[in-house]
Amino acid sequence: MTIYEYSAKTLMGEEKPLNDYQGKVVLIVNTASECGFTPQFEGLQELYDEYNKEGLEILGFPCNQFNNQDPGTDNEISDFCQRNYGVTFQMFSKVDVKGDDAHPLFQFLTKEAPGMLTKQIKWNFTKFLIDKNGKVINRFAPQTKPGSIKSDIEKVLNA
């Protein structure tokens, strides 16, 4: 299985198949607008600006499961990301990332790259690095700043 088996609704309401990203390196992140890690949007956008022409895509999935830190509507989330961080990478509609109602993509991601103590996602801004074939390569903790995974991204881009 790969991420290409899944699709998700964008913030604009379109169903987007992830097989649109075949041949690309993808960084999937569960995001939140009112979290202590929210400033990572800036670092994610910097990664996107630096590596998108080389084949990096970043997919943001807002989630409100952690202390209700993304309570807004899709339109409010879109406006927030644009206004505060100039986000141009693909953002999706709000999803659950853990529990019985977790989006199937996140069920797959956590199965492929379980966390240290639990396979569930423990907080906002957990990051999953996906290779050009749609396979999960690595999982990064929420406190891992986007800039600190540049070398990991470069290795996968150059593989």
TrEMBL record:
GO terms of biological process kind: cellular response to oxidative stress
Family affiliation: Belongs to the glutathione peroxidase family.
Keywords: Oxidoreductase, Peroxidase
Catalytic residues identified in the record: 35
SUPFAM superfamilies associated with the record: Thioredoxin-like
Stored Gene3D superfamilies: Glutaredoxin (3.40.30.10)
Organism phylogeny: Bacteria, Bacillati, Bacillota, Bacilli, Bacillales
Gene Ontology MF terms in the entry: peroxidase activity
Domain Thioredoxin: from-to ranges: 1-159
Pfam families with a match to the protein in the record: GSHPx
Protein name: Glutathione peroxidase
Alphabetized InterPro entries for the sequence: Glutathione_peroxidase (IPR000889), GPX_AS (IPR029759), GPX_CS (IPR029760), Thioredoxin-like_sf (IPR036249), Thioredoxin_domain (IPR013766)
